[in-house]
Amino acid sequence: MLHPIDIALQTAVPTIMVPLHGEFTELANHGHRFLASSNGLWLEARRAWLYLRWPLVQQSAVAMPYGTVQKAIQIARAPRELVSEFISHARDVCPLECAAWIVWNAETDTWKLVPITPTTATPQSVSFQRPRLGDNEHLVVDLHSHGRINAFFSQEDDTDDRGEYKVAGVFGCLDGELEARFRLCANGLFIDLGNKWEQ
User: Fold this and answer.
1) Rounded distance between C-alpha atoms, residue 23 and residue 82, angstroms
2) What is the pLDDT of residues 124-155, one digit of tens each?
3) DUF2016 domain: from which residue to which, for each copy (predicted)?
């Protein structure tokens, strides 16, 4: 007999067997679940701005009585000018690091850049209090700069981004030829989006 807490957890975040003969139905509501398929174990997630289906473990050696699914990422794209506005600010404060959020309002379908006032900022790090979101507002893109050094995601970034659903972006070499990296953060899973996600 399952423990009541296990029942609650598995109800909130179930594992679904992908049908072999029937039609697979995408997750309709906000949340996430796991998919057991003949080609592996998958994470499926939906947010107001995101639909994701991505493999956690892929396999083909063991025959399983399930169907297959394929990768899918659908992300609402933030206006490019908001990213450019952040880059301009990051160049102004270089070599110090800085940060900002790009927030989407699902009710009004509007976007805004939320500059973040740092509690501390150095050429190696930036610390801040997380902004409060209003009703129907969603953090979609979390941006920070690296001043004069290269664009990469550090171990501290990995720790900070774990457990969230968002796009993370970092910009480096702001005093020269700009570098950028983007990734989708999905509850501890990091998916590389390259260097031109905003385009």
Assistant:
1) 40
2) 888 878 899 999 999 999 999 999 999 999 99
3) 3-74
